Amino acid sequence: MPHKQQIDPKTLLRCSVCEAVNRDREGDVYCHRCGSRIFRNPKLSTSKAWAFLITALILYVPANLYPILISEQFSSHTGNTIIGGIILLWEEGSYPIAMIILVASVLVPILKFIVLLYLLINTHLKKQRYSRVGQHRLHYMTEVIGPWSMVDVFVVAILTGLVHIGQIRVIAGPGATAFVLMVLFTMFAALSLDTRLFKEKEPYGRDQSTDH
Amino acid sequence: MAQLPREEVALDRLIICPKCHTIHQKVEIPKGKSAKCDKCGRILYHYDARILDHGLALGITGLLLFFVSNLFPLVRVEMLGHEQHVTIISMVFSLFENGFYVVGVVVAFMVFIFPLMILVVYIMINWLMMQHKGAQLTKELLVLLSKLLPWNMLEIYLVSILVALVKLIGLMQIHFGLSFWALALFVLLDIYLSKSIRIGEFWELRRRIYYAP
Hints:
The complex is a heterodimer of chains A (212) and B (213). Chain A is an alpha+beta fold.
């Protein structure tokens, strides 16, 4: 009969689907409560996370180079890239909106890239240089702020649906497709990251914080 | 009633903080209170004795607001005597008309299909557990619900409408439609529902309803 004391807290896992506590039995782990696979082979999930992240990084280039929004006014076309749109808004004096777009479409994706790259590289190191709790917090943060980079895509979608009045028309640009895919792939990368690989700086059993 | 293995019962007395992964032992808390992680302060669980009644009421209200916000125009714009309006569905269709299929599909899922599915699944779970029916079905629905939740982006969509309108100020006259206010209300409700649905509490309740102690 398993007593509380016999379960080593270091082997406990949180099911990301139903939040139940499970024991880590290496390899594939299925949740006892909801039956979902919590983790498959960590090597496979790390490669998957890398693949998603690299795809997202590649997509980030066309997302920024191609216009995300094209406005047609009396037969003159002007394309706006993400950065171009922000500069335009800033020059017009809509500072708060320029700031929202800057944070959502530029800073959030870059921050997500940096954090995911950092976490992924960390899983390959023997000695991890950041605490396990810190790594979990970083991962949680990327999951929370990640979706906000969709703001610009929704704005483009609304303008495309709203502005086709007479000779004036706004349509999405090729950058929008690249941007949507980039956001999707960064979300997939964050979801497929195996959080079991977040290890303590010190060897096992030295940390008091998880013992209560 | 089915019996759960001892180890599972022991494991279910523990909870891991989703934010910082500290392990806690669940404790009894008074009605209406919530338990917080002592390391990072994130709420771990609540004690809401009427969680199912509240859930069902909020779910049905949400569904009504969702229909209203899709039936009428969100925003109307006027310029040089021309008028144009947009609804969530017409927005998706104009993306398709312009050949942006990927953007159209992704946007349709995030602001229409997923929110609707979340509401329907949520109402079904609450109703089934109230009736003490469908032990297996509630399990599958709960799994589906937690997979859907991260992909609902209606609150981000609401902010996007405002950002888009600011871009149009000065160019044309803007009128908010009935659906905009319905959507704003719905998003408030939705934030409460999907950001504070603590899936763990429903699983806990499910165990108490369908399994012997």
